[in-house]
Design brief:
Strand order of the largest sheet: 1-2
Mean pLDDT: 91
Helix content: 55-70%
Length: 286
Amino acid sequence: MDLEKFFDTVNQSKLIEILSRTIKDGRVISLIHKYLHAGVVVRNRFETTEVGVPQGGPLSPLLSNIMLDELDKELEQREHRFVRYADDMVILCKSKRSAERTLKNIIPYIEDKLFLKVNRGKTVVAYIRNIKFLGYSFYENGKGGQLRLHPKSISKMKERIKTLTSRSNGWGDARRKETLKQYIIGWVNYFKLADMKRLLTQVDEWYRRRIRMVIWKQWKRIRTRLRNLIKLGIVKYKAWEFANTRKGYWRIANSPILKTSITNERLKQAGYIFFTDYYRKVNGVN
């Protein structure tokens, strides 16, 4: 289940009503009310905020959770199992018929009691294997329910790596390494619960090929390629032959000569980190 434009459509009167049940100090309520009505600046233009909570504001995540805590309590009262993160939610049912009935019954509460709108396009009744939640998907094995990466999360990650390893961004080696390091650490920490050891092994092979392609592009001239290949242990006649190749960058990046000269270990020594290594470190596995 997804709530449509949640932060922009929160009913402020309903929110103040919920807050007033437990906050008895009128000054606090008044301050929150002023915060909600303070307005926001979007692209150098001031916009009023008569509905919703300002996105990016320090209080907004807290206020939105206070609002949706009402929904949590309602679901608990109806004895539903569910998981919610902000305005994204999964309600778990034993059968398709039960799920359809639950959806039909909970929408009126959300829209008529909390004055929020359910996004019909992103709200579906589906088998647990077929859903995407916070970038994860689910499967079952002998150990019970397990987490894995949703295909869209993998595609999004690869697109980001492509951008960060692009030669057209004008970055130097130091900035590229640091940005890749930050991205990989953040990405793995977010998805560390997923079963993805085998997947990351394949991703790292592709990722290293991207790095080798960048390095080969940096060695623009034949004499630069020749000198560097010899320095990295390739015999002179092979280095000369390879330095003069007309093959494309992506194809060259997968060649045995680059794999044995720009080795995985040398890439690590140069300051690159890899998904598999950090995943093992975070999860304490070999």
